[in-house]
Amino acid sequence: MIPVIVRNMVTEARGIVRVVLGSVDGSALPAFEAGAHIDIKLPSGLTRQYSLCRLQEDAQYYEIAVLKDPQSRGGSVEVHSLNIGDSVSISEPKNHFPLVETNRHSILVAGGIGVTPMLPMAQHLQKMGLPFEFHYCAKSPETAAFASALASSSFADKMHFHYSQVAGSSRMDVVNVLSCHSNDSELYICGPADFISGVLQQAKMLGWPEERLHREFFAAPALDENVSENTAFKVKIHSSGELFDVQADESIFEVLDRNGVFLAVSCESGVCGTCQTGVIDGTPDHRDVFLTDKEHAQGKLVMPCCSRSKTPVLELDL
Fold first, then answer.
1. Where is the signal peptide (predicted)?
2. Into which CATH architecture does domain 105-217 fall?
3. Which of the residues 2, 172, 275, 286 has an alpha carbon 20 to 30 A from that of 91?
4. What's the pTM?
């Protein structure tokens, strides 16, 4: 973890604060690419993940923007209570939501606070002179972080604002937006789980191939009604042959942790990809939203923080 100092706190919209984090001694922080996020360890000991919301203009600073969510587990509330000068620790940037290296048209779609990883994406695409359009969906300008800055940015001509609670505006016409470029574009989407799931479902109905649909969830959607009830199974460690029982009310990660098998875990809900593990044998019962449908079908990877097993034994590449 890297120690940093809270250098500034700026209210960007109703319930949203932008936090400027700076290195302790003014030295450069690790470089990152658009779409990256960091883990931040808060004073209480909680660790949360937030997207870096602006490309670095000065290498000693990172910026995140956080919505104060009353339904959260406490992380966003604690971030909002930080003060300038407070010390926190962060990880090096991780990127599970990168831009694809292509000259194809890009469609950026942000729902609410999902705008945060999209900002550096738009900055990068504009800098590289690549074609894109940016759709920002929110209730109103008052709840849309960075709306004014985006409207006056160097790529303002590529911005499309969709406000569901503003007269003269409306929700994004998903079918129209996706139909225009279904054969020549990459889609990037971030926002509430139901919002992402709805747009991706529509994209697939319109014939978008899975490999051109890129998404990042901030929280896992509710489990599908068809998800089977939890049952007990065994998990096998490939390197040692050890076999552990996983009861119906516990996760693979919890069992591994209890038995001294280290596995890096962050979100504990199948969102971030930190605990991604290879599968040697057995069939995973996927409960994550990080892997693609194709990866789920292949069954070669699993997220032990939330997923289970459809077979009596699941052998992991550990």
1. none
2. 3-Layer(aba) Sandwich (3.40)
3. 286
4. 0.82
